[in-house]
Amino acid sequence: MVRVGISRGPLQWCAPLILLMLALMPVSAVAQILYGSIVGNVTDSTGAGVPGATVKVTNMGTGTVRQVSANEVGAYSVPTLQAGNFSVEVRSDGFRPAEVKNVVVTINSVTRANVALELGQVTESITVTDAAATLQTDRAEVRAEVSSKQLVNLPVPPGRNYQALFATLPGFTTPTNAHSVPSNPSRALRFNVNGTSGSNNNTRIDGASSTNIWLPHMTAYVPALESIETVNVVTNSFDAEQGLAGGAAVNVQIKSGTNEVHGSAFEYHNNNRTKAKNFFIPAGERNPKLVFNNFGGTVGGPIKKNRIFYFLSYDANFQRQFATRRGTVPTEEMKMGNMTNSQGRVVYDPDTTVVNPDRTVVRTPFAGNQIPLSRINPVTAKILPLWPSANIPGAISQNNYFGGAGYSFDRQTLDAKFNFNPTEKFTSFVRYSFLDYDTQNQAFFGDALGGDPIAGGNVGNGFGLTHSLTLAGTYSISPTFLMDAYFGYTLMDTNVEQPRLDENVGLDVLGLPGTNGTRRTEGGWPQVQIASFSGIGITNSFMPYFRRDPQYQYVTNFNWTKGSHSIRFGFDFYDQRLNHAQPEFIGGSSFAPSGGFNFNQGNTSSEGARTNEYNSFASLLTGNVFARGKNVLVPDSFQTQTFMSSLYFKDQWQATRKLSLSLGMRWEYLPMPVRPDRGVERYNPDTNEMLLCGLGDIPRDCGTSVSSLLFAPRLGLAYRMNDKTVVRAGYGITYDPYNLARPLRVNYPILIPFYDPSPNGLLPISRFEDGIPNIPLPDANQNRIPVPVNVNTVFTGDDFDRGYIQSWNFTLQRELGSGYTFEAGYVATRSVRQLGYVDLNAG
Q: Which residue among 104, 139, 249, 470 is least crowded, i.e. fewest CB within 10 A of its CB?
């Protein structure tokens, strides 16, 4: 059995006091995940503030206008702005109007635009045409931005994933490909940041979290490179609005249309003639076929000037490949029982087994290391003709076969965004992204014998869709009080079917009792493992699978500007669901739902004898099985649901013209996952029973206590020493957002991972032709079910205390001119009691 647990956080007792202190503080600008802000000081020629000055900001691309007034010391802030290029116009009686153009606003950032007014007539004006800000002047977080210009111009590997450029950012491990195409059709990259777990990264697309719920260290959807306007990355001292991220908070903004029509088109081609020959391809073999095409385009513009805009992006990837790999197959002599080339290893006759009183196992060798043809198992005899012959000269019994087969991967994505700004008070947009994919990945030994996927990943036909949506709007209740809200939705529909899935190969072809079943997920080849040889049949215990995982997110924020304070508060409700038809177990050994068998070296060995691959193949020839079993999914499919709730409060306070302080608190509640009609399951090691939570007297949360006092403070300061130098420092805590639905999604009696190994590595558990014994199904009407001794379980204890991550930094930034800046800082993270597994059977 395996137990999951993490420790209690440090601030549960003091967090309410800190939150109360922040609430009592007097009520600068706040940046938002989905939007940006402009802040600044309006001064006269002596440097004194100009109170009450009228500040009008205009989006130069869409014509959207917002107007505010400077406070009593001349400071102003304009929050909740859609990203874009702005002009800032300032007017005050007795002064010439002044305008600053090209003020660039990006998501989740604060742009400072200070304006100096001169005495004069209102008919005269001063215009500054370039206000490109290069310093991070008002927030303490450690952040970086990747612009659309960088995305398009910097070299990115085929597939053109923006995450590849994270390799250029401090604190990131090199992003790498991970998992199969059906599990990760966007080909999202895996990375760790500042030493934290990869599951502590959170990627949002136009505000909506895009989590691969089943693989939380991956992103569910990766937009086309050409569709992205900006990628904002925060890696330390997170703002209170940013939750569910202790490593990196990645915010991706899709482009929007403007009053001008813009478009692009592209095509990238790659083939085997541009690639070096693989080192493992045998001499004389040519570089195998590879054709990769990536093409598409974008277009954006107005539907109604200054009011309605559109943006569309299409991206297609088509890959055709003759994939190759090396493997190990039995030689023709081995198939005939001839083991004379065994490099001195002796093959022993399992029918001569003697177990001594001291439990040692001794056997008599086969005469001349030759297994008689009459001793070849009848099931094995059906398999032997299906094996291809070794074809690599000089290789005798290892890596002696080179094979190849066709592979294809087609993927198309669409990103569409429509902005609607009916009034100066109300702006909105809808963003919809869509991915469709199909992959054909043949088995190493073809449909006849199966084996590993020829191109890695999952063997067979993978297909599915991904949908991603954001609906967002902002409303100015007054010039100093604003509301913004958005709804996010993502659906991953991923499936893979192995070859011959609609045949019961184990039962009907090989004649193995207990293999396969009445459901489609139980069809195909059984799993056959022979130590030191390439696997045959289905080689993964988690195949096939059919997953449909939706997620819903509801976010509402309010922004109140009062004097030199900008108060922002809101909530984030995140609903993640798993809907799977997949008999997979995590946490221990298991075999495929079609059944599985393992043949080791010990079953044709003797006490103290040295063994090699000849012994394991002899175990197959004689039909002596070391382990057998199958994963039995009791219902046809299963579901889990996890709710994550958050509240936050923060005050961005411009304490002086040079000093900005950020004080915030975030509260999170991360309860146990549930099923649609009850809770999940929990193992009781004292009674060896599985508790079906939510039935009878068993509480829906399984009696597992989770804290409702997860308060996380966030503190930061930014001090502007002069116009070219900024000093920043920040500190924050983030609670580990890991979704327990992953380790707890299947447990007995939802899944029976029947795994039946020999208690002694030298003794067989059964004969091949015996198949797999009948696996009794539990009574689903009970709420306490006894657990068989050969079934694995994963469970939590009475208290599940989430770990947390502390992050802090001290940074100096200096503008050098000509668009260059110098930045040096001390950045630290500390992960406390990370989530992990404890094997209670160990020892």
A: 104
